[in-house]
Design goal:
about 220 residues; alpha/beta; 7 strands; about 25% strand; elongated; binds S-adenosylmethionine
Length: about 220
């Protein structure tokens, strides 16, 4: 089922790209990438055979087996250098996405665009991207079942960076900011139980972040 989270990932893919969908699971993103004409060819991979079998069935039922190659394996290790221009990794934790990207530096070098949708630890992922020669080209927001997700497009080329991020113009921004403040306030409330935690740098940092988010 294609929801607004998957649609937001899809919308960042440049037309006619060769794309890898890492952690493809059911294969819905891969299928929609080809159906929409965003991708001319997709490699749909997953570490686990259960999800990959489901993807295979869905791809075959959609009549797209000639355009989507299915591969079993860990992260980017299923790819060869230069095979794809774009890599999508959606629905995984931010730390796992960082691990997958860090594990295959040669493959990563050969890829122009990364489209990433972390389930958490977004800041950690953004920091890793900036420290590893990737420009944050754009960020969008998408809501599914009351949860707002961030979708990141990271490019090799600084010319790809949007003047104004989609996120900043999104009707979801206010709600997203309020949810973020509420989460951080809960962390502070928990930390407030320990005097050592209250005196820590982390406590001050979170306080400052809340204040800065309130200004938005
Ligand atoms: C929650 S699903 C997300 C599916 C889909 N990408 C989406 O966003 O709807 C995560 C998938 O990633 C796969 N996965 C987890 N670690 C992986 C890795 N290191 N390499 C490839 N696939 C992985 C899991 O087997 C699972 O099918």
């Amino acid at each position: 089922m294609i929801d607004s989270r998957i649609k937001a990932v899809l919308n960042f893919v440049e037309k006619n790209s060769r794309v890898a969908d890492i952690g493809a699971d059911h294969g819905y993103l891969s299928i929609e990438l080809v159906k929409s004409g965003r991708a001319s060819f997709v490699i749909a991979s997953d570490k686990n055979s259960g999800p990959l079998d489901a993807a295979k069935k869905n791809i075959s039922a959609a009549g797209l087996s000639d355009f989507i190659e299915v591969r079993l394996g860990d992260g980017l290790k299923v790819l060869r250098e230069g095979e794809v221009e774009t890599i999508c990794i959606a629905g995984m934790g931010g730390a796992l996405i960082v691990e997958i990207l860090s594990d295959s530096p040669e493959i990563l070098k050969s890829v122009q665009q990364l489209i990433l949708q972390p389930m958490n630890a977004t800041e950690k992922l953004l920091e890793w991207l900036k420290n590893n020669d990737r420009y944050i080209a754009d960020i969008d927001l998408a809501e599914v079942g009351g949860i707002i997700y961030e979708i990141i497009s990271a490019a090799k080329n600084p010319a790809r960076v949007s003047a104004v991020m989609k996120k900043e113009k999104s009707p979801l921004l206010k709600k997203f900011t309020a949810q973020k403040i509420s989460k951080l306030q809960k962390v502070l409330a928990e930390m407030s139980k320990s005097p050592a935690a209250v005196a820590s740098e982390k406590f001050k940092k979170i306080q400052a972040e809340i204040e800065s988010l309130k200004q938005k």
